[in-house]
């Protein structure tokens, strides 16, 4: 009887050791990859949930922030309108899906376009204003200008842009003085001038002098 019990005990020990050897261990192989993906063993999985940590994106919040450029930006919201202010220049963005990301305590602003693509708002209202002054030959672009951040284009050409609009002096057919409503669109990611609108019959006068 004792011999039978001894044999059974030895059998259990042998099977237990074999089973442990066959089990996957962390360190190499597919099991290690699963552990790393879960954040263990030095893994650092991408966080997709909303939060306030570095590199995490969340809905744009009101307040004052420092941009990557070092400039300060003020963000306010009224209903569905978001206002971005840098210096004295304010851009309104209606029904915009803007998110924020803090990188080394500095703000980056992102948006998701209607075509599903993501874009970053790298150009700020003050820079858009300066570009409009050159493009529309203005003396300044303060109270006389309105700046709107909005989506323009269709399909693969969809992007966020600033539309800077104002009323300025011009010449009718290049002969007689008149006033005209003019505007220009500026890519909010690259700063490129997309297009300028003005009545076909007017010639813009240089107001910068």
Notes on the protein architecture:
This protein is α+β, with helices and mostly antiparallel strands. The protein has 2 domains: 2-37; 57-204, Nuclear Transport Factor 2, Chain: A. Helix content is 20%, strand content 40%. It contains 3 helices and 13 strands. The protein has helices spanning 2-22, 29-37, 125-136; strands spanning 57-59, 63-66, 72-78, 81-86, 89-94, 98-103, 106-112, 118-120, 146-152, 159-172, 176-187, 193-197, 202-204. The strands form 2 sheets. Strands 2, 3, 4, 5, 9, 10, 11, 12 and 13 form a 9-stranded mixed sheet that branches. Strands 1-6-7-8 form a 4-stranded antiparallel sheet, with no helix packed on it. A hairpin with a 5-residue loop joins β11 (176-187) and β12 (193-197). It is elongated, with a radius of gyration of 30 Å. The termini are far apart.
Write the layout of secondary structure elements.
Blueprint: H1 2-22, H2 29-37, E1 57-59, E2 63-66, E3 72-78, E4 81-86, E5 89-94, E6 98-103, E7 106-112, E8 118-120, H3 125-136, E9 146-152, E10 159-172, E11 176-187, E12 193-197, E13 202-204
Parallel strand pairs: 5-9
Antiparallel strand pairs: 1-6, 2-3, 3-4, 4-5, 6-7, 7-8, 9-10, 10-11, 10-13, 11-12
Average residue pLDDT: 79
Broad shape: elongated
Main pleated sheet: 9 strands, mixed
Q: Give the ordered list of helices and strands.
A: HHEEEEEEEEHEEEEE
Number of domains: 2
CATH architecture of the largest domain: Roll
Task: State the secondary-structure class.
Answer: alpha+beta
Provide the CATH topology of the largest domain.
Nuclear Transport Factor 2, Chain: A
Number of strands: 13
Rg, rounded, reads 30 Å
């Amino acid at each position: 009887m004792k011999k039978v019990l001894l044999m059974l005990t030895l059998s259990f020990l042998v099977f237990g050791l074999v089973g442990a050897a066959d089990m996957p261990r962390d360190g190499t192989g597919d099991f290690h990859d699963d552990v790393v993906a879960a954040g263990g063993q030095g893994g650092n999985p991408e966080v997709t949930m909303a939060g306030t940590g570095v590199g995490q994106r969340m809905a744009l919040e009101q307040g004052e922030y420092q941009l990557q450029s070092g400039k300060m930006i003020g963000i306010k919201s009224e209903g569905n309108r978001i206002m971005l202010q840098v210096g004295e220049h304010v851009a309104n963005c209606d029904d915009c899906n803007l998110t924020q990301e803090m990188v080394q305590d500095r703000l980056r602003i992102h948006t998701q376009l209607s075509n599903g693509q993501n874009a970053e708002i790298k150009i700020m209202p003050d820079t858009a204003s300066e570009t409009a002054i050159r493009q529309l030959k203005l003396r300044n672009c303060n109270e006389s200008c309105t700046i709107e951040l909005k989506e323009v284009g269709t399909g693969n050409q969809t992007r966020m842009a600033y539309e800077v609009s104002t009323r300025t002096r011009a010449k009718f057919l290049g002969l007689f003085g008149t006033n005209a409503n003019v505007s220009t669109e500026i890519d909010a990611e690259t700063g490129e001038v997309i297009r300028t609108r003005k009545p076909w019959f007017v010639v813009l006068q240089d107001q910068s002098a």
